[in-house]
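FOLDING PROBLEM:
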Amino acid sequence: MSYGFTFGASATDFFGTVSNIRWPSDVNGVYVAAGAGAAAGPGGGAILLTNQNGAVLTVSGRQVGLIVAADLNGLVITIR
């Protein structure tokens, strides 16, 4: 889910880790992050998201393209 505006196009390859968990079920939930930024050409990026259980998802990686954004993003993770 994403709310806000994004202008441009880019390709992104992210990897990440989850921290601040006690049980595997703490990973379940809706992760949210707010941000703004711009990129032109190749570069790196990082996003820090948190969920209602206190879990922190940190993702980083490479991004290529031209993009300008100001938005609120989310991600739902469910482990079965």
Summary: The chain has a mean pLDDT of 79. Residues 2-77 form one domain. The chain has one domain: 2-77.
